[in-house]
Amino acid sequence: MSVSKKPMVLVILDGYGYREEQQDNAIFTAKTPVMDALWAKRPHTLIHASGLEVGLPDGQMGNSEVGHVNLGAGRIVYQDLTRLDVEIKERTFFANPVLSGAVDKAVAAGKAVHIMGLLSAGGVHSHEDHIMAMVELAAERGAEKIYLHAFLDGRDTPPRSAKGSLQTFEEKFAALGKGRVASIIGRYYAMDRDNRWDRVEQAYNLLVEAKGEFQADTAVAALEAAYARDENDEFVKATVIRAAGQADAAMEDGDALIFMNFRADRAREITRAFVNADFDGFARRKEVKLGDFIMLTEYAADIKAPCAYPPASLENTFGEWMAKHDKTQLRISETEKYAHVTFFFNGGVEDPFKGEDRILINSPKVATYDLQPEMSSAELTEKLVAAIESGKYDTIICNYPNGDMVGHTGVMEAAVKAVEALDHCLSEVTQAVEKVGRPTAGYR
């Protein structure tokens, strides 16, 4: 006879934090009776989620991936950003056999080296210093045709902050006497993670065919034109950079393409468009047989492409420990954070552990989440409460993405609505937890 279990429930309110300043503070402004009661009557604490405490450089802001990796590991895990910074400083990066091998192969065949990635100082998905190092590596090894395809940020950086970065790279190429910024496009298109393939298609066509909605002589001129169209960095439309007399930067068979994002979740879709023979996200108007497609880090175990920096093995994570002790566990979230409660929480392990179930709730199909700040929280809560009351699980790990996804839009009114929607959900969740006989506590 099976015994009904009383699960330990970890509810992660992604992007939900603590700040004493009240101005522009959505959490302070919102009506949150449930969280207020938990904070007043239940054990609670504040935890650090940035810098050295989560394996990042001192002063570097944290992010969802880093937080979930550290939570799942139960210890400080040094991150790819830190690892790459050290490799570049010590110049071992420039001897990386995967990166240098791809460049050497392209140079020997007279082919181009294409470098793509999020041109950002944010340090969340990439860092522009790493992209600069890759440009230098290609130039040092004799590449003459170096094309940078810049994905613009505006989410982990201020909305209109790309100009300085683009100027720096244009000056670098001028100093080298070779190479150029070949295209710019907002991360909204190039770095989707919710199967919005119409967005990814625009980025793919820009890179492969050198065709976009707009064209400009320089990257800075292209950005200024985008701003004039009222497009912030994140939403800059596909723009080809080519001055009169410059060669076409369309990809050709035998070219090398190096993807300089180190974070996996927003790198997967466009990577699959390039490397999967059976790709069906959209009809590729042009398929190119690259000499090499290089992932800076491993984006997914089933993506068959060389990886410059394979993942360091993380042993005895929370999920692994639970499985070894024959405990059952559930991971549940919306599409936007599903990878975080599964892949990242499990230390980069793609497949579920023994006894681990997963529930994916589709995030709403809206252009930006300020248009639906509650997202799919009602459906997520319904499934979560049912799982708590099922008596099936020893542990449940849940992520509500609203705070992060709506907060990134910068729309205060929507952020307040998101916080209030979360508070309503917490009411149902805490009642379910207490109903099965578990205490509740909180942290921010």
UniProtKB/TrEMBL annotation:
Catalysed conversion reaction: (2R)-2-phosphoglycerate = (2R)-3-phosphoglycerate
Start and end residues of each BPG-independent PGAM N-terminal domain: 86-300
Domain (Metalloenzyme) ranges: 6-437
Binding site for substrate: H125, R155, D156, R187, R193, R263, A264, D265, R266, K337
Alphabetically ordered keywords of this record: Glycolysis, Isomerase, Manganese, Metal-binding
EC number: 5.4.2.12
Active site (catalytic residues): S64 (phosphoserine intermediate)
GO cellular component assignments: cytosol
Enzymatic class: isomerase
Requisite cofactors: Mn(2+)
Gene Ontology biological-process annotations: glucose catabolic process; glycolytic process
Family label: Belongs to the BPG-independent phosphoglycerate mutase family.
Cross-referenced NCBIfam families: pgm_bpd_ind, PRK05434.1-5
Function: Catalyzes the interconversion of 2-phosphoglycerate and 3-phosphoglycerate.
Subunit structure and binding partners: Monomer.
Protein name: 2,3-bisphosphoglycerate-independent phosphoglycerate mutase
Species: Kluyvera cryocrescens
Gene that specifies this protein: gpmI
